[in-house]
Amino acid sequence: MPNKDTKPASERRRQKNTANRGGRPMGSKNLKTMLRDIMLQEYVVMEDGRKKRRTLLHITLLNLRKAAVEDSSPRAMKKFGQVMERYRPGIINEGAGVLLAPAEMTPEEWAADQIEKNKTRKPPPGTFDDDEDWKNR
């Protein structure tokens, strides 16, 4: 027998939807997403007599650069400077070292070079193969 506080299903009230009804509808895009979609659309443009595919973002930046450099527009120069300042690739780590790549050589030349270098090298600390003190213990 059902509890006296429990009503039959036909008499129960529906639970209200607690979602934000005034919010952004499902499936709609926000401004950032729409802007990204528009700016990344590709268009065919003529450059140096050849057809090339460029994104709208690329075309816009090229036009801004052209206005700043060739037309000497102060507003375009200022805006181009702001864009360059904000998105310029910077130094990731100022304390980083420099990678030096070895000269190109054949495997035989490399092996001969290493043999020559190994004649004057001392073993790294902690290796006991060439350590006379360790052998005498």
Describe this structure in words.
With about 140 residues, the protein is mainly alpha-helical. It has a domain of about 55 residues. Helices cover about 40% and strands about 10% of the residues. It is built from five helices and two strands, in the order αββαααα. Strands 1-2 form a two-stranded antiparallel sheet. A hairpin with a 2-residue loop joins β1 and β2. α2 crosses α3. The model has no long low-confidence stretch (mean pLDDT about 80).
List the helices and strands and how they pair.
Layout: H1 31-39, E1 42-47, E2 50-55, H2 56-69, H3 74-87, H4 107-118, H5 132-135
Antiparallel strand pairs: 1-2
Helix pairs in contact: 2-3
What's the quick description here?
The chain is built from five helices and two strands, in the order αββαααα. The protein has 137 residues and is mainly alpha-helical. The mean pLDDT is 81.
Q: Can you tell me the residue ranges where pLDDT is under 50 for at least 5 consecutive residues?
A: none
| Beta-strand proportion | 5-15%
Q: Level of helix content?
A: 25-40%
Mean pLDDT: 81
Total helices: the number is 5
